[in-house]
Amino acid sequence: MEMIRYSRQIVLKYIGEDNQRKLLEKSILIVGLGGTGSTAAEMFSRLGVKKLILVDRDKIEITNLHRQILYGMDDLKKYKAETAAEKLRKINPGVQVEFYNETFDSSMAWLVNSVDLVFDGTDNMTTRFIINDACDKYGKPWVFTSAIEMYGEFKAVIPGKTSCYACFNSEPTELPACEVSGVLNTVPTIIASYGVNLAMKILLDYKIDGSIYFIDAFSFEINRIDIERNNKCRCCHEKDYKYLGKEYSGIGKSILL
Ligand SMILES: [Zn+2]
């Protein structure tokens, strides 16, 4: 095994050879290969895991390039998931990469059961509810991330241990979009970095709380807000997985909020 590649992180006392070997057995599903998801995909690849599964139906546009650092001019009009897969295989051939140039919908929720963790690189609440229901159903942790304007946020969701996304959100609402509100080009990268750190700690069984962390990249402020488990939660308490139903299959972009 190509352990020399990881020598600079193996010397870290929080990682070490045993934990590196653990990471190299892990599989991660990344939903959304935009600024946060594609940067996270590259960092997971360099961190060293067994397998990455990438899902995104979008193609690369020139307006993406100020922040989506995995892509360049030669990639315009190509699928993000497929392009990311090609690049990741060159960065670290030791990591298996699978991709789907499709919208992650309820028909793809089974993928969650084949991985150890899901990383959310999406920009809409509907997809997050599908991820949340699937992760609760299959007992898999996921990392929620979001990046817009000067701000980003992230949170761990660990079934049975932390609050879930539905504990503090009842229905999808339309979120501000990057094309309207803009996004500072450092924000997705900052949030991807923290999100990958959080994922790594979850995968290595370090103690994690269910707080949501807000980062203002312009003022450098970081705020942590405790999110308690909601004992009336539709998802993690009542186990009503409505976002895994047929109406959330084949949704394309049509009902994504
Ligand atoms: Zn919940």
Write structural notes for this entry:
Helices cover 28% and strands 17% of the residues. Strand 2, helix 4 (80-91) and strand 3 form a beta-alpha-beta unit. The mean pLDDT is 95. It has one domain (15-248): Rossmann fold (3-Layer(aba) Sandwich). The longest helix is centred in the last third of the chain and has 17 residues, at 187-203. Helix 3 (35-47) packs parallel to helix 4 (80-91) and helix 3 packs across helix 7. The protein contains seven helices and eight strands, in the order H-H-E-H-E-H-E-E-H-E-E-H-H-E-E. The chain is of the alpha/beta class. The structure holds zinc ion. Zinc ion binds at residues 163-164, 166-167, 230, 233, 235-236.
Within CATH, the superfamily carries the name NAD(P)-binding Rossmann-like Domain
Strand content: 15-25%
Which class of secondary structure composition applies to the elements? alpha/beta
Overall shape: globular
CATH class: Alpha Beta
CATH topology: Rossmann fold
Total helical elements: 7
SSE pattern, N- to C-terminal: HHEHEHEEHEEHHEE
Ligand inventory: zinc ion
Radius of gyration: 17 Å
Gap between N and C termini: 44 Å
> Got a strand count?
8
Average pLDDT reading? 95
The major beta sheet can be summarized as: 8 strands, mixed
Based on the coordinates given, report the CATH architecture: 3-Layer(aba) Sandwich
Order of strands in the sheet with the most strands? Answer: 3-2-1-4-5-6-7-8
How many domains, in number, for the residues? 1
Residues in helix, %: 25-40%
Segments where pLDDT lies below 50 for 5+ residues? none
